[in-house]
Amino acid sequence: MSQKAEFDTIVVGAGFAGMYMLYRLRMLGHRVLVIEKGGGVGGTWYWNRYPGARCDVPSMEYSYQFDHQLQQEWNWSERYSPQPEILRYANHVADRFQLRSDILFNTTVISADYEDENNLWKIATNDQTIKTATYLIAATGCLSSPNEPTISNPGEFSGEIYHTGRWPNEQIDFSNKNVAVIGTGSSAIQAIPVIAKQAKHLTVFQRTANYAVPARNAKTDPVERDHFKKNYKKFRKLAATTRNGQLAQPYDKSAIAVNQRDRKKQYEARWQQGGLPFIGSFNDLIINQKSNQTAAEFVKQKIRETVKDPKTAAILSPTSPIGCKRLCVDSGYYETFNQPNVTLIDINQTPIDSITSNGITTSTKKIELDSIVMATGFDAMTGSLEKMNISGRNGVKLKERWNAGPKTYLGIACNDYPNFFMITGPGSPSVLTNMLPTIEQHVNLVNDILSHAKKHGRQNIEATAEAQDTWHDHVNEIASKTIYPSCNSWYLGANVAGKPRVFMPYVGFPDYVARCEKIAQDGFTGFCFS
Ligand code: N01
Fold first, then answer.
1. Which of 8, 224, 229, 334 has minimal CB crowding within 10 Å?
2. Containing domain of residue 361, as a range?
3. How many CA atoms does the CB half-sphere of 280 hold within 13 Å?
């Protein structure tokens, strides 16, 4: 006799994607269980509690739009709200929609196996139980599997080692401490100025210099906020027309179509405005190397003007195109290197040899430390999915299937993995966009697919191999027309040793949405319903 599934759907992850998915599935009448590794909701914002952590998309935009009342009742205190406030918002949403009753916290999925004969997923968790569901939805986030650097002897260290992506739930006081930060990505760039204010001495180990533009964070202006709230619908619609799903529109000219004076004026205006819109100073910075160089040179000049020691300024100046790696948004990052208690080490010149009981030994000296902060990023986009140990039809492991890089249809489904969906998976715009609207679009799409299947009396949903191959080629073709493949970014998996070098996100939110809408109109082409 065939086995019946305990749940219609199991969702993994209770971040913004998992919470909204739960909300929609309940409306669809599904029996749902959400399994969450953390002790609370919030995903990224639950784990990334490092000093200085805040959003780099304006908070008025980095928020849910599915519920009018929710939008109206929540007030953000700052332009870029800090992590504790975003976590409070996530908790507010969980309370408001009474989501917690269907979430199992402090529980990790250790494997997920599709059983063809019973047409269900068997999900094993670290508490030694197995749960079954017809549908499995991974809302595991794109940047949730920390990248631990391979440095000799980390266990030897007698002080504390932290990872920015797994920060403890208590205040860490670095006063009077000798601290090292390894890495200079977005997390480090936010944390370094805050840690440097406390620490006796801070040593920053840099492998690759990054571009950072000033955030110009400020308290929310109540008049502006009310205007935004009154016009939310219009603003959200406008944001959906830009490549990255954010409201700031790119200036509609090529950087090389204007003269040097006007170009500089434009960069200066965006620099003063602050934040990620800098990359929209002109409309071709990510597709034209020559244009890109002009923006890169502008920022490098700012670094030289800010950092007093020319040698340090040179080390901090990136060599890759700007925006090729995720642009960082900072509050006093470059200025921090003028402090007498801060030292920068370029590990390409002076490699880390090992971690010792009381510090780090480099090729030239021993540095005594009380604390080490690994700001070394994530096994992005595929890390958490592969960790779930997913086996599809005929026991094919997803990790093995993705040996040469991930292949998906629309970033939400995979051939040979029936009734399995991903929210913001590889092949979707996700990390190149404002994540909140992207998440909502994805959840709505999965919801519509499930609803379509139900309406037509079908239970099994699977992406076809052909649709998946075509989508994969399309994602790569678009990426190849940009500067993105030209540097070693986590978009390409290049930050993790041994990871295949494949560009994972989809470039262009509006085009992606238009394609999804067409697919839906045509009865969800590329999916097989049985
Ligand atoms: O991680 P990263 P992150 N030895 O990968 C270095 C989002 N985010 O956590 O560039 C020495 O960017 C590594 O060097 P390299 C945002 O999307 C958002 O900072 O690989 N160094 C790099 O410098 C962001 O892009 C916010 O050569 C090593 C750093 O560690 C993404 O998360 C805030 C090393 C890692 O930088 C990831 O950011 C924070 C080693 N073995 C993050 N291994 C918002 O504001 C790695 N590195 C919303």
1. 224
2. 148-210+325-377
3. 16
